[in-house]
Amino acid sequence: MNKITKLSVLLFVLLFSINAKANLGGYYYSAIHVEAVVHENNTWEITEREDVFFTEPRHGVYRYIPYTFSLDVKNGKGEVTNKKYECKIDDVEVSGSEYITEDDNNNLVIRIGSEDELVTGAHTYIIKYKLSLPDDRTPDFDFIYTNILGADMPAEINKF
Description:
The structure is a single chain. The protein is mostly beta strands. 6% of the residues lie in helices and 59% in strands. The protein is built from 1 helix and 11 strands, in the order αβββββββββββ. It has one helix spanning 3-11; strands at 13-20, 27-38, 43-58, 60-66, 68-74, 80-86, 88-95, 99-104, 107-113, 119-132, 157-159. Strand 8 (99-104) and strand 9 form a beta hairpin.
């Protein structure tokens, strides 16, 4: 990795501002804002702000964060290989409610809310975690790839 790339990766800040509004059966996301600081050692510090509006009483929301992915990689000879990667997710914190984490089908699941308490109206949850991408095993280049929101984000994204 050359010095410019290292510096770019070290200083790279990914800023997503997403307006999402899709009724999911009792609640919708009025806004989702994601920031990611990418470090030279291939770790990302992620902060998500999720503004959720509960239209009827619910215990909370689930946040699914994928930690596996596959990518077609071309080597120096032009040959393409599909490689599977697994990320590590650490240091999960949620403010705005109690939470627990569990693994489910290659996702870290954060269950935000209380099984003893129902919520209605507007609520904001701040989710922080560290995502460590694996070594890409490609000596010719380094890549940055991840789908922070995941394919199963249950909201329509109107603004990116």
